[in-house]
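[Q] Does anyone have a clean structure-token version of this?
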Amino acid sequence: MNRHEQRVIAMEALYQNLLLNKDIRRSLFESTHGQNEIDPFLYSLTIDLIEHKDAYIQDIEKKLREDWTFDRLSLLEQCILLLAYQEMHVIGTAKPVVIDEAVNLAKAYCDDTSYKLINGILDRL
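[A] Here you go.
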């Protein structure tokens, strides 16, 4: 499984966690078709992210317009931003790569203009 596919799985698992309050480990287990071994990259994108989610949300909120809050974003936008934050600041993936992947996820799964919002916020992080 390549990194892009792992990002999609991570986004789906995080989405289930945010929407349904489903355990992230359970979501990953189901998304990886019952594999017990989770790639370290995927593990960091999901399980490690959940441990620090509230701090990441605070950092991301600082980059939004004054009249916006993180909760006002769609759940998919929230997922993409959290994953990108984790990948940039913890995993250490190059910022242009993270932004490109996040924009592609937004174009594929979000509203038509969401990618612009994602791009702008990540550029300021």
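[Q] Thanks! Anything notable?
[A] DSSP finds six helices and no strands in the chain.
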